């Protein structure tokens, strides 16, 4: 219903509509006629006849049981018949086109009024505003819809992202940005740094849909760097523009059923044809994010000289089947079969037998991206819990009046803050170190942060379920983001492991300690 048709009413007028056959209620200054809807109400008809509801203000009753988005659904929006004259809605929509949340600890300090940051500049802030607006308006609605229907992110979203060069920016700073107009010219390619990239990664995961988030080119973030850094000029000239324009898709295909991410245990083979012009690739790959719709596969293969990375295109002999995981099919997670696939040798990425170098070259960056998203997702859970503890009443008092609930909130806030602050420090180091320095000095730091962050995330998920109770394990309604997070968060702890998808967190921690031990001064003694 268009707003011009809505009536301006007084509370006294609304109070007249207080019977079963004529039933109005007020929610946040808007007046709803629920007479006919009452019998269709998913929460039952009787609730509308409770003594403090008919003809009265039901704002508190409503928000202790429903998310704001319920009122935004077209079928419910049209129940509105008027608004209370002289009153304005007081409740902010949770997704408010680019706005910064006013809920304490819902944003990192650099975005909160009155706080200061040694790292982020005015330029970063302008960039963040534009990126958030873009994600709120273009990506969030598609994320919610696709997460439900399990389809891949809409092509229109990929296209819009390409228009502002988001696919290219997600590859981080570098030569691939040259000549591009980033975010409508908000940042020059040579000025784009890891803080800009952090902003993009963190804004993306605010859509709260883990499967969709990965469907949104996660395969490109890990599958394209080997092409960018190790592909021939001809290969790059053909593949990179197609992928960064969101028209064709790429994924990283390393892990196998029997080998996890153990590159030396891989069984997918690549053998040369007699004339030496082609590879023949045969084998299977498992858990391949975006594999379902990938046109290109960056494949780890066993070759005569050891381990080699080869770009395989979707041609005859390549088959992809969906794998059902704890998150939605929107991620396009695939089981991939290569059956005698003929690939030109020009598609070799890096040296033959030098595949481990190709893979390791992106590990730090990949793990750092995971830290960015893990930090932001935890914060989103903090916001959900802060709101719930504030608006939910149990035994006549808000949840936040209970010390046990406050203790859980305190722990999750402390975790979110510590992860973000460590991350910002590391990002600053990345901005100021050469690639080689980063490899030497930051591999351990990033490994520790990745381990710490995903452990914090799992603890926060557990605490959040306790705060939300049954709703924390219910896929619709108030706790839907908590249920989703709790179901999907273990995946984060498995990603980016060092050659092992089992106990990846421990492997990462160990990597950091081993690197630290190598750096011990020879003369250090107690
Ligand atoms: C325009 C007004 C209302 C609309 C459109 C509406 C819509 C809905 C919807 C869609 C659900 C399903 C759960 C969800 O998706 O969140 C629901 C559940 C429910 N509603 Fe309403 N509702 C309205 C007002 C009210 C009021 C005023 C009360 C209480 C006095 C109420 C009590 C409930 C209850 C108890 C549930 C079940 C909640 C649960 O399972 O956790 N509703 N409502």
UniProtKB/TrEMBL annotation:
Q: Which GO terms describe its biological process?
A: fatty acid beta-oxidation using acyl-CoA dehydrogenase
Task: Provide an example Pfam family for this protein.
Answer: Acyl-CoA_dh_N
Q: Which cofactor does it need?
A: FAD
Give the matching InterPro entries.
Acyl-CoA_dehydrogenase, Acyl-CoA_DH_CS, Acyl-CoA_Oxase/DH_mid-dom, Acyl-CoA_Oxase/DH_mid-dom_sf, AcylCo_DH-like_C, AcylCo_DH/oxidase_C, AcylCoA_DH/ox_N, AcylCoA_DH/ox_N_sf
Keywords linked to the UniProt accession: FAD, Flavoprotein, Oxidoreductase
Naming one, the record's GO cellular component terms include: cytoplasm
GO molecular function list: acyl-CoA dehydrogenase activity; flavin adenine dinucleotide binding
Q: Please name the SUPFAM superfamilies in this protein's record.
A: Acyl-CoA dehydrogenase C-terminal domain-like (SSF47203), Acyl-CoA dehydrogenase NM domain-like (SSF56645), Cytochrome b5-like heme/steroid binding domain (SSF55856)
* Cytochrome b5 heme-binding domain boundaries: 6-85
Among PANTHER family, the record links this protein to: ACYL-COA DEHYDROGENASE FAMILY PROTEIN (AFU_ORTHOLOGUE AFUA_6G10880)-RELATED, MEDIUM-CHAIN SPECIFIC ACYL-COA DEHYDROGENASE, MITOCHONDRIAL-RELATED
Q: What's this protein's family per the entry?
A: Belongs to the acyl-CoA dehydrogenase family.
List the protein's name. Peroxisomal acyl-CoA-dehydrogenase
- Origin species: Wolfiporia cocos (strain MD-104)
């Amino acid at each position: 219903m268009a707003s011009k048709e809505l009536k301006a009413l007084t509370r006294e007028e609304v109070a007249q509509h207080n019977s079963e056959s004529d039933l109005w209620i007020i929610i946040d200054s808007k007046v709803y006629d629920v007479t006919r809807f009452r019998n269709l109400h998913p929460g039952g008809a009787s609730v509308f006849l409770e003594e403090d509801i008919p003809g009265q203000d039901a704002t508190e009753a409503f928000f202790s049981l429903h998310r704001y988005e319920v009122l935004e659904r077209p079928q419910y929006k049209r129940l509105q018949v008027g608004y209370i004259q002289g009153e304005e809605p007081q409740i902010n929509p949770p997704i408010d086109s680019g706005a910064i949340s006013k809920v304490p600890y819902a944003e990192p300090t650099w975005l909160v009024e009155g706080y200061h940051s040694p790292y982020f500049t005015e330029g970063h802030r302008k960039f963040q505003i534009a990126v958030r607006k873009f994600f709120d308006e273009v990506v969030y609605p598609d994320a919610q819809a696709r997460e439900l229907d399990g389809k891949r992110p809409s092509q229109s979203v990929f296209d819009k992202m390409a228009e502002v060069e988001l696919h290219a920016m997600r590859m981080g700073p570098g030569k691939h940005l040259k000549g591009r107009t980033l975010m409508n010219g908000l940042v020059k390619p040579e000025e784009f740094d890891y803080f800009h990239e952090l902003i993009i990664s963190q804004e993306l995961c605010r859509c709260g849909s883990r499967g969709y988030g990965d469907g949104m080119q996660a395969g490109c973030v890990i599958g394209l760097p080997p092409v960018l850094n190790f592909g021939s000029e001809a290969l790059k000239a053909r593949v990179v523009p197609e992928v960064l324009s969101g028209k064709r898709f790429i994924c990283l295909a390393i892990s196998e059923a029997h080998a996890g991410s153990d590159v030396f245990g891989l069984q997918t083979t690549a053998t040369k044809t007699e004339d030496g012009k082609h590879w023949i690739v045969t084998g299977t790959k498992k858990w391949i994010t975006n594999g379902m719709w990938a046109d290109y596969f960056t494949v780890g293969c066993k070759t005569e000289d050891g381990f080699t990375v080869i770009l395989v295109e979707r041609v005859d002999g390549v088959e992809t089947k969906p794998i059902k995981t704890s998150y939605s099919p929107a991620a396009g997670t695939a089981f991939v079969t290569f059956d005698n696939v003929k690939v030109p040798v020009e598609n070799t990425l890096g040296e033959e037998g030098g595949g481990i170098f190709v893979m390791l070259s992106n590990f730090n960056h990949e793990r750092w991206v995971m830290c960015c998203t893990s930090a932001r997702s935890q914060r989103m859970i903090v916001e959900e819990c802060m709101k719930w503890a504030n608006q939910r009443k149990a035994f006549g008092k808000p949840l936040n009046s209970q010390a046990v609930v406050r203790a859980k909130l305190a722990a999750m806030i402390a975790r979110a803050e510590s992860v973000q602050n460590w991350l910002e420090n590391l990002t600053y180091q990345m901005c100021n170190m050469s690639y080689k320095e980063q490899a030497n000095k930051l591999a351990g730091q990033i490994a520790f942060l990745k381990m710490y962050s995903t452990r914090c995330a799992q603890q926060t998920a557990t605490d959040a379920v306790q705060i939300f109770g049954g709703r924390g394990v219910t896929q619709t309604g108030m706790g839907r983001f908590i249920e989703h997070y709790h179901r999907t968060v273990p995946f984060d702890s498995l990603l980016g492991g060092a050659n092992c998808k089992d106990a990846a967190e421990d492997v990462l921690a160990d990597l950091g300690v081993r690197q630290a031990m190598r750096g011990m001064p020879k003369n250090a003694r107690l």
